[in-house]
């Protein structure tokens, strides 16, 4: 069943109704730590029809490991390969020590990492976004995404980013 909202997004649908209608598509997407509140927050303003959900969430199930390394480079933020490697190493160490894998703990860990590196939040997060998502698309907050992926997969993706940049 394809349901489209006339305003080209689903923002007008009540949360409870959205969750009921989106549920079969979440199941198809096979998200390991599926959380309706997080998924709704990520998707509600981004989709025109429910059948877009599996496509939008594909990056959670499968990281395109051949994403372009140029996504890491940002001249405005003074990010080059070397600085991205340093940031990803710091993130890996910091996140590996998070025992209670909650959104607030993940966020705290990354904010502390940014402070320790004396980097702006944007500069610190961009390499993490690329390693975790494998794209420049930014559906949902990185903290929500890391929570949905789980600790093991999050660390694996950061390790892969480090290996690809090395």
Would you give an account of this structure?
There is one protein chain. The protein is mainly alpha-helical. The protein has two domains: 15-61; 69-165, Arc Repressor Mutant, subunit A, CATH 1.10.10.350. 59% of the residues lie in helices and 0% in strands. Helix 5 packs across helix 6, helix 5 runs antiparallel to helix 9 and helix 6 packs across helix 8 (142-149). The longest helix is centred in the middle third of the chain and has 16 residues, at 81-96. The protein is globular. The protein starts with 14 loop residues before the first helix and ends with a helix.
The total tally of domains equals 2
From the 3D structure, determine the CATH topology of the largest domain. Answer: Arc Repressor Mutant, subunit A
Unreliable stretches: 1-8
Structural class: mainly alpha
Strand content: under 5%
Which quaternary structure do these chains form?
single chain
The CATH top-level class label of the largest domain:
Mainly Alpha
CATH architecture of the largest domain: Orthogonal Bundle
Q: Give the overall pLDDT as a whole number.
A: 87
How would you sum up the global shape? globular
Secondary-structure element series = HHHHHHHHH
The value of Rg in angstroms is 17 Å
Question: Any descriptors?
Answer:
single chain, 166 residues, mainly alpha, Arc Repressor Mutant, subunit A, 9 helices, globular, disordered N terminus
